[in-house]
Design brief:
Layout (H helix, E strand, L loop, with lengths): L3 E6 L2 E6 L10 H12 L8 E6 L10 H7 L8 H10 L4 E5 L3 E2 L1 H8 L2 E5 L3 E3 L11 H22 L3 E2 H6 L5 E3 L4 H14 L2 H13 L10 H11 L2 H11 L10
Helix pairs in contact: 1-3, 3-4
């Protein structure tokens, strides 16, 4: 069974993460399929891209079992390529978040242009609880979307935040009761599909370009700290503990 399903309905292309038994955890195969789907040529009648997840969870982030095998290398994996593909997609991208969006799943949702969430969904970055840290690319999106206060709360505590709180702070576009999610998502997608396509493409490009100034900031010193965390014994212990469903014992090594 394909880990990514693509559905086309008129001007709307929906990309489904289809790994419900693993909470749509992002393994290398799913990530590659997402990159391919997002990078596919845009058809003349395409207007909107929608990203969704099968099962009860939107996306639980990078696959821990697979990630643990490569954690010592300090590499961030192909998730950055996938997220950049979302960002650079010439069409508006809507995330319909029906369940939890954690770590890489949180980043995926926040890289989309508009988030429509269920009130039962939670958004979080649990990296501090497993001994990891986001790199510059991942952290700058959090700062862009959430601002410094909520970013610090999400990163430093590591506990997921309810969608209702993010919506109340104006950080996600829509948040509705679970039974109203489909209707609200359709309302947003239909509005986008009816708007002028050239205007939307220009606006999408503008919003991406105007925030690229962060890419020019030197961050070698921060990168070194992130790499040290990713290669640490604590990271190995944190990932192992999470897989074994126990509390990690960190030693600062």
């Amino acid at each position: 069974m394909s880990k990514v399903i693509i559905e086309k309905s008129g001007p709307v292309k929906t990309i489904w993460m289809n790994r419900p038994e693993k909470r749509n955890a992002l393994d290398s195969e799913l990530i590659e399929a997402m990159i391919e789907a997002l990078g596919a040529p845009v058809a003349a009648d395409d207007r909107v891209v929608v990203i969704r997840g099968k099962g009860q969870v939107f996306c639980a982030g990078l696959d821990m079992a697979e990630r643990r095998e490569t954690i010592g290398s300090g590499n961030a994996s192909g998730i950055e390529v996938m997220l950049r593909a979302v960002e650079l997609c010439p069409l508006p991208v809507v995330a319909v978040v029906h369940g939890d969006a954690i770590a890489g799943g949180n980043e995926l949702a926040l890289h989309c242009d508009i988030v429509v969430a269920s009130q039962k969904a939670r958004f979080g970055m649990s990296l501090a609880q497993v001994g990891l840290a986001p790199n510059w690319f991942l952290a700058k999106k959090l700062m862009e979307v959430l601002g410094p206060v909520t970013t610090r709360e999400m990163l430093l505590l590591g506990d997921p935040l309810p969608s209702t709180k993010l919506h109340a702070l104006g950080l996600i576009a829509r948040c509705v009761p679970p039974e109203e999610l489909e209707a609200e998502a359709s309302k947003v997608v239909d509005r986008l599909a009816a708007n002028a396509p050239l205007s939307l493409k220009a606006m999408k490009a503008l919003t991406v370009k105007q925030l690229e100034f962060r890419d020019g900031i030197k961050h070698d010193d921060v990168d070194a700290l992130v790499q040290a965390a990713m290669k640490s014994q604590d990271a190995q212990e944190g990932m192992k503990a999470r897989l074994e469903k126990r509390t990690a014992k960190f030693q600062g090594k």
